[in-house]
């Protein structure tokens, strides 16, 4: 099963980022990859003009770049989504 690029999954991923301790902001910007990751401040800025599919894909691209994720502290749904997202990235 892969993660579908839907608005519902966008919200699930946003909740997962909050559990991990990252803030997600959708803002205007000139990002070559569609996003900017500010690790020092635990912030991911995603181009607000991307369609939902692009936003979900950007979040899936960012997730493996986040260091020191303690999976044991995630909720059951968060843990399952994290593992699924990491599996998709590995494929």
List its traits.
3-stranded mixed sheet, 3 helices, alpha+beta, 91 residues
Explain how this protein is built:
The chain is an alpha+beta fold and 91 residues long. The chain has one domain. The chain contains three helices and three strands. It has helices spanning 7-20, 52-62, 76-90; strands at residues 23-27, 35-38, 43-47. A three-stranded mixed sheet has the order 1-3-2, with helices on one face. α1 (7-20) runs parallel beside α2 (52-62). The radius of gyration is 12 Å and the shape is globular. The mean pLDDT is 88.
Describe the secondary structure blueprint for this structure.
Layout: H1 7-20, E1 23-27, E2 35-38, E3 43-47, H2 52-62, H3 76-90
Parallel strand pairs: 1-3
Antiparallel strand pairs: 2-3
Helix pairs in contact: 1-2, 1-3
Low-pLDDT sequence parts: none
Strand content: 15-25%
Total tally of structural domains: 1
Number of strands: 3
The profile of the biggest β sheet is:
3 strands, mixed
Helix content: 40-55%
Order of strands in the sheet with most strands: 1-3-2
Alpha-beta content class: alpha+beta
- Give the rounded overall mean pLDDT: 88
What separation lies between the terminal Cα atoms?
12 Å
Number of helices: 3
Radius of gyration: 12 Å
N-to-C SSE string, H for helix and E for strand: HEEEHH
What is the 3D shape? globular
